[in-house]
Write a structure and sequence with these properties.
single chain, 228 residues, Rossmann fold, 8 helices, 8 strands, globular
Length: 228
């Protein structure tokens, strides 16, 4: 894609994994963090793993947002709302926020196998209320293993993409399919993100019961995603 990808909260396991996959695919990636030095260190480590030519850098979250119009949010639920409020001045109308936040109870001291009730319906819908007018929110990348994202093997997982904007769904879907083995599934409107977010708690349960870190989902019986 033409725009860099700013991964907000990109020093955590999922953010690092997505940054690694997209930079490996040739995308320009900006890792965002509250600590610009930590972001820069993470970017340097990933660039060393990928090799020469990797287009990846790190900076503070607001600066990462200001540098592009495609943002990917990969933070725990308990920090989502406050961070989006802080970043609001840096977000531009016409930009896209791809939100991977899952409202797990573990973020407030509960079980990782349970989700919290969110007044707006889902974490993604909460984001839609908090971002500036003109910023489109997509819910995606909730059900993909952070451990697998950090490796080089193909990932056997579908990514369900939910948004009220068709073009935003396409952009997020194209990014998903830059990850080897991943298939993007059009999940319809943003309100459906509440169902997709809840699947993550089930996958955590499966990981625990089967002593793995790689549980994912595949949706069967669908035709191939059309090329646009």
């Amino acid at each position: 894609m033409n725009s860099p990808i700013a991964i907000i909260g990109g020093t955590g396991p999922q953010g690092r994994g997505l940054a690694f996959q997209w930079a490996k695919a040739g995308e320009t990636v900006i890792i965002g963090s509250r600590d610009d030095k930590r972001a820069a260190t993470t970017a340097q480590e990933l660039a060393q793993n990928i090799g020469s030519g990797a287009k990846i850098s790190g900076t503070e979250n607001s600066a990462a947002c200001a540098a592009t119009d495609v943002y990917v949010l990969t933070v725990p639920f308990d920090g989502q709302a406050e961070l989006l409020k802080q970043l609001k001045p840096a977000m531009k109308a016409g930009s896209i926020l791809i939100d991977a936040t899952v409202p797990l109870a573990a973020t407030v001291g509960g079980r990782a196998t349970r989700v919290l009730g969110v007044w707006q319906g889902s974490a993604a819908q909460q984001s839609a209320e908090l971002v500036p007018k003109g910023v489109t929110v997509v819910g995606a990348f909730h059900n993909i293993s952070a451990e697998l994202l950090s490796g080089n093997a193909d990932i056997d997982c579908d990514v369900i993409v939910c948004s009220d904007d068709e073009n935003a769904r396409k952009i997020a879907s194209d990014l998903a399919e830059k990850i080897p083995g991943v298939r993007a599934i059009d999940g319809g409107k943003l309100e459906n993100a509440r169902i997709v977010e809840q699947i993550t708690a089930l996958l955590i349960t499966l990981n625990i019961r089967h002593k793995v870190h790689s549980a994912g989902i595949r949706i069967t019986g669908l035709p191939p995603r059309p090329s646009i």
